[in-house]
Design goal:
Elements: H1 2-39, E1 48-58, E2 63-68, E3 81-84, E4 89-90, E5 96-97, E6 114-115, E7 119-128, E8 136-144
Parallel strand pairs: 3-8, 4-8
Antiparallel strand pairs: 1-2, 1-6, 1-7, 2-3, 4-5, 7-8
Length: 146
Amino acid sequence: MKEERLAVVAMIRRARVSVALTVIAAVIAALGGYRIGLSRDRHSATTVVLTGTVTWSNEETRLIAFETDGVVRKPNDGDTIYSVLTDNWQDVAGTIHSDGTYPTCLAGDGGDPVSTDHHRAELTVIDWDTGGAQWMHVAVRVRCLD
């Protein structure tokens, strides 16, 4: 009877040691994975929705100058230029266009590719760190407000 009891106690101790070693190995693996994840480049972008005025637009280059509501530029600040990289856009009536046409609130008059008409728009944008001093601003969605 005493031998059976000793065998059970030994089995319980081995099980505890096995569980403890498994937990330690899992913690080490998790910490290692976390460290590796921190060292890798990020491949995701966070979008921001901005409302403001398009002060200049060029349909041929798909570049626009955009002034965000509530942001006051310093006298020596240049325009914030956005690259419009979307084929889908929403007009004032709420219709979504996915036919590759240029948004009407960005387009010039009479076939002119350049517009300085100061139209209101809502942009969904991402900022892309190109490694230089300036970030590239990218509009991935355009919603015309007027």
